[in-house]
TrEMBL record:
It comes from Aurantimicrobium photophilum. Its EC number is 5.2.1.8. The keyword Transmembrane does not apply. This is Peptidyl-prolyl cis-trans isomerase. It holds the Pfam family FKBP_C. One of its GO terms (molecular function) is peptidyl-prolyl cis-trans isomerase activity.
Amino acid sequence: MTEHNLTKPEIDAPMGPAPAELEITDIVVGDGAEATPGATVDVHYVGVEYETGEEFDASWNRGESINFPLQALISGWQEGIPGMKVGGRRMLVCPPAKAYGPAGGGHRLSGKTLIFVIDLLGVS
């Protein structure tokens, strides 16, 4: 799988209650370099709210991937990306404690369970 044949994923609103713990699901297992906890990652992603299925952010909409040190990201990403290999696509369901904290935490997504579909394009 290369960046050129990747397409923006569609995320359907899930049924049932939101999980209390981080859920990690591989959609495509990559065969490239593996992300480690201290890595800087190059990713494409889509994020939606669990409850509504509404998209709140997507690198795809900006037409370019993002490059971040894992330590700078929400804990759900810090825990959910290591072990992923370049070329892979993974879904993370992050409860508030693994995303932007409890309701009233000051971020517009505080208190919300979030779903991310992440394509790992590179690690360094």
